[in-house]
Design brief:
385 residues, alpha+beta, Butyryl-CoA Dehydrogenase, subunit A, domain 2, four-stranded antiparallel sheet, 12 helices, globular, binds flavin-adenine dinucleotide
Length: 385
């Protein structure tokens, strides 16, 4: 593969887990992806297989049934999956972040109850923050959790929950107190509870093998110990989830970009025009040169953010930079890859039209590019930005 990682020192363990993800993707996703994409099919059995290989519990320690690996491994796995199917990468990325936040904030009872089930891939996790009227400005969310004796009663609607109809548990943000971010708490909610309904399945431009639904909570009763962390800490927890998740989305964008580069190099060597392979024209080869350079940059930014997270150092701004750069590059170069393929690129005969459709979401979810710019600007300018 042209888009191989060059000269980035990975440990043997990181290299092995990356090769394992690539192998599963090649054998179990690649032969089916065109059909799955066409049919908007969520490949549920695949996640049992990924679970058995340890890839649904990447960051979960071994005592809880996980692989006990690090964020760099998480980024590598998501990247390898995204090279073949960005939708599967989305599922794994969101699921892994739920695991990471549960691990960081959960009580011992919550961790021993949920982490082994999530690590096995038999159960999948979802994250519910966005609402119909509240996206980027998430601190204004309206879904509520009202204390009633030994229970909380959840009401409201959550929009575009990745894994929402497939998940056994959803990490949901609900308002327990007053206005603004301090009034929000996080809950671990079992999706089978009475009163939770899948209201709408979203048909999407891309990442069609991922599950995206609206969830309605109608007087859903959860015990007090369903709260994750302390009351009023939910928004901070949500931001923490999103920061880690941005490493995953940066890795997803990097994987799409690597696939676009591979396809472009191959096609540029095979397709002839004016008596030469089109790769002989600078109009084509310079596009490929820029693609390869941006791929390296996207990878290095992503691995840096992951390595900082692994070292227990602040990584939120670096994760935003990685996501901003990698997603912009993926969207731009997926379009260039399609251009290099000419008319063929516009057809489903080649996968580049899928890369083009899949790349766009990486600029939108887990914080839009504009929100990443605000985070980066604030790290330099403080409240001025
Ligand atoms: C396929 C898919 C999967 C998703 N999965 C999940 C999930 O699992 N869980 C979840 O909670 N959410 C999920 N989301 C929601 C996603 O995170 C939001 O769509 C995203 O955060 C943007 O929110 P919004 O769509 O409401 O856009 P808005 O916040 O309404 O923004 C609209 C536009 O205005 C811009 N904008 C807003 N504020 C500013 C500002 N201050 N400065 C400059 N520009 C600004 C935005 O960048 C954007 O371009 C998903 C969305 C999709 C499409």
């Amino acid at each position: 593969m042209i888009g191989e990682r060059n000269q980035f020192d990975l440990t043997d363990e990181q290299r092995q887990v990356s090769e394992l993800a690539a192998e599963i993707a090649r054998r179990e996703i690649a032969p089916h992806i065109a059909q799955w994409d066409r049919e908007h099919y969520f490949p549920r059995p695949l996640f049992d297989r990924l679970g058995a290989a340890g890839l649904m519990g990447i960051v979960i320690p071994e005592p809880y049934g996980g692989a006990g690996l690090d964020y760099v491994s998480y980024a590598l796995v998501v990247e390898e999956l995204a090279k073949v199917d960005a939708g599967t990468a989305t599922t794994v990325s969101v699921h892994t972040m739920i695991c990471a936040v549960l691990l960081a904030l959960g009580s011992e009872a919550q961790k021993s109850r949920w982490l082994p089930r999530l690590a096995s891939g038999r159960e999948i996790g979802a994250f519910a923050l966005t609402e119909p009227d509240v996206g980027s400005d998430a601190s204004q969310l309206r879904a509520s959790a009202r204390r009633d004796g030994n229970e909380y009663v959840l009401n409201g609607r959550k929009q575009w929950c990745t894994n929402g109809s497939q998940a056994a548990l959803t990490m949901g943000m609900f308002r327990t107190g007053g206005a603004g971010s301090r009034g929000v708490s996080a809950f671990i909610v079992e999706n089978a509870l009475p009163g939770i309904r899948v209201e709408k399945v979203t048909e999407k431009l891309g990442i069609r093998t991922s599950d995206t639904v609206d969830l309605t909570f109608d007087d859903v009763r959860v015990p007090l110990d369903a709260m994750l962390g302390d009351e009023g800490e939910g928004f901070v927890n949500a931001l923490r989830t999103l920061s880690g998740g941005r490493i995953g989305i940066a890795a997803q964008a990097t994987g799409i970009l690597a696939a676009a580069l591979d396809a472009s190099v191959k096609f540029a060597g095979e397709r002839t025009a004016f008596g030469k392979p089109i790769g002989a024209f600078e109009g084509v080869s310079f596009k490929i040169a820029q693609m390869a350079t941006d791929l390296d940059a996207a990878r290095l930014l992503t691995y840096r953010a992951a390595a900082l997270a692994d070292a227990g150092r602040p990584f939120a701004t670096e994760a935003s930079k990685a996501k901003l750069f990698a997603s912009t590059a993926a969207r731009r170069h997926a379009a260039e890859a399609l251009q290099i393929h000419g008319g063929y690129g516009y057809t489903t005969e080649f996968p580049v039209e899928r890369y083009y459709r899949d790349a766009k979401i990486t600029e939108i979810y887990e914080g839009t590019s504009e929100i990443q710019q605000i985070i980066i600007a604030r790290s330099l300018l403080g409240k001025l930005a």
